[in-house]
Amino acid sequence: MAQLTMIQAITEALKLELKNDENVLVFGEDVGNNGGVFRATEGLQKEFGEDRVFDTPLAESGIGGLAIGLALQGYRPVPEIQFFGFVFEVMDSISGQMARMRYRSGGSQHAPITIRSPFGGGVHTPEMHADSLEGLMAASPGLKVVIPSNPYDAKGLLLSAIRDNDPVIFLEHMKLYRSFRMEVPEEEYTIPLGKAEVKREGKDLTIIAYGAMVQESMKAAEELEKEEYSVEVIDLRTVQPLDIETIIASVEKTGRAMVVQEAQKQAGIAANVVAEITDRAILSLDAPVLRVTAPDTVFAFSQAEEVWLPNAKDIVETAKKVLTF
Amino acid sequence: MAAKKSQQFDPVKTLSEIEEKFEMFQILNEEGEIVNEEANPNLSDEDLQELMRRMVYTRILDQRSISLNRQGRLGFYAPTAGQEASQIASHFALKKDDFILPGYRDVPQLIWHGWPLEQAFLFSRGHFMGNQMPEGLNVLPPQIIIGAQYIQATGVALGIQKRKKEAVAITYTGEGGSSQGDFYEGINFAGSFRAPAIFIVQNNQYAISTPREVQTAAKTVAQKAVAAGIPGIFVDGMDPLAVYAVTRDARERAIKGDGPTLIETFCYRYGPHTMAGDDPTRYRTSDIDSEWEKKDPLVRFRKYLEGKGLWSEEKENEVMEQAKEEIKAAIKKADAAPKQKVTDLLGIMYEEMPFNVKEQMDIYKAKESK
């Protein structure tokens, strides 16, 4: 089995699905000859031709609209938004149009589109590149929002996303692109959307996280273990829809929960998770469900990222509050 | 080597030279006379009669829709009278395989493409069954976001090109829509891909109340095509023959692989923006209205056809009666549509219901069965 980075796993998924399904089209800014600014589409144009892997003019709304039109001709578009901070340019095409295609047409049309886009802090980008905007997407009925935390999941989730007959926002954390390798099978496999994974079993506390915060939560769990706390870590993988069953089963077991997200407290997914837990499992709780998030400022100027982004230390600190409540 | 002063590029002069070239294209004048025989599309007698029949029918549909709206029997409605040449004659140049991406005033083109009248009424009433397009009908439901359909049309056109189909994507907006980013992105992308698209801007002079002059410094909307590197044409939007001819030519170019065309139809809406309380007397005078009524597409086309012995009062009455009958029958059908339930709406959100939708489906099913 090959040891792959997340970006390599993503390229492999794209390659597989371009091969499997002639209706899959990959396009966006610089995705053709250049292979994408992160090389996610490296070699794809050469292998599959300019008809199926192509550059577009530089306009995000245009890319979104193009995807919708192509979907109406029976294609399965996989456009790239170069950085997810640019999503504001394409909000109408996403939330106003593709998310509503099935509904607006009374179920007679659909938009099997997967928008791939890099996001996430810790890599010192200029403004509007790294923001965690998954909460905006999750608030649009009609979309699914997927955020892998590792190379293996990235491949299996991307294949599921492309094969899904409804629009999926597939967000790729830039810091995870090349930070570690993992065994990734060459053959195809899928990970169902809407299914979380218990990364680590425990009985004292449930930490629910996604994206780059999964790793931080795992580190925190190890720290806490040294103090004899048994911590369960759940990787949401899909942040809309949530895997309520897995979350609730865990919380009912541990009686204590917290949610970790890289997004600001007022954004992201954590508030949804907390609400679902209190709706469904309040009598199982021995402590309030706390959150570890970034503060409610605009995404940090790059030199301030280290103090702004939540990390394992913050998670340990909050975990102790929950554990000792 | 310094360029000579006389050879210096003069941007002001260049602009005015370009703008002067965008003269209004006309074939049939207000008196119903052919003024541009060379460009006459020479439609057969049957086609001329059919085009007239559709325009008369559409005028009646507009009148009936307004009155049904006032009676509370229709919901959202954007009047179309005055724009029949722009809408119906451009549609007349299309084939069944062509894909229409309409704005919300473009219900008539959808109907003539095959959208059942009762479904148009259900759309107006806000019933999801109105938007369930019959299999094989190549249209989207009317777009509400101004200009969003432009960039989607480019996507459809690119898909048509990739599928090697002999068809075009055609989309409509108003001159207000031509101020949107999506307008520019749409025509620019389509030019870049040489996609078989036709972009129509029905310049009806007012975007709700905002006059044409406020939208842009450009003398015509059509000239915006120049910046995208595609052909643009400024056409008399009250002249059915001219609108038909330019759309047919645009379609031929698109199908040959010569890319998209931008068409500005210079026209007027007689009615309010929509039936939701717009009062045109706040922004137009009755003098302006009567100036435009002299240009009416039905009046000039009727004169032309009567001159050729192809139209009569009797024929016109026949069409009007037919329209009224069919509208009545369609309203009856629309009335028979089942009342919408929340479970209907939950059921059309996703192919497979995710957890949250499924859970709410169960809750509403229980509520609705009470």
UniProtKB/TrEMBL annotation, chain A:
Pfam families: Transket_pyr, Transketolase_C. It comes from the Bacteria. Its EC number is 1.2.4.-. Transmembrane segments: none annotated. GO terms for molecular function: oxidoreductase activity. InterPro entries: THDP-binding, Transketo_C/PFOR_II, Transketolase-like_Pyr-bd, Transketolase_C. Keywords: Oxidoreductase, Thiamine pyrophosphate. Gene3D superfamilies: 3.40.50.920, 3.40.50.970. Residues 4-179 form the Transketolase-like pyrimidine-binding domain. Its cofactor is thiamine diphosphate. This is Alpha-ketoacid dehydrogenase subunit beta.
From TrEMBL, chain B:
It is an enzyme of class 1 (oxidoreductase). Its cofactor is thiamine diphosphate. Residues 313-340 form a coiled coil. The keyword Manganese does not apply. It catalyses: N(6)-[(R)-lipoyl]-L-lysyl-[protein] + pyruvate + H(+) = N(6)-[(R)-S(8)-acetyldihydrolipoyl]-L-lysyl-[protein] + CO2. Keywords: Coiled coil, Oxidoreductase, Pyruvate, Thiamine pyrophosphate. InterPro entries: Alpha-ketoacid_DH_E1_comp, DH_E1, PdhA/BkdA, THDP-binding. Its EC number is 1.2.4.1. The pyruvate dehydrogenase complex catalyzes the overall conversion of pyruvate to acetyl-CoA and CO(2). It contains multiple copies of three enzymatic components: pyruvate dehydrogenase (E1), dihydrolipoamide acetyltransferase (E2) and lipoamide dehydrogenase (E3). This is Pyruvate dehydrogenase E1 component subunit alpha. It comes from Planomicrobium okeanokoites.
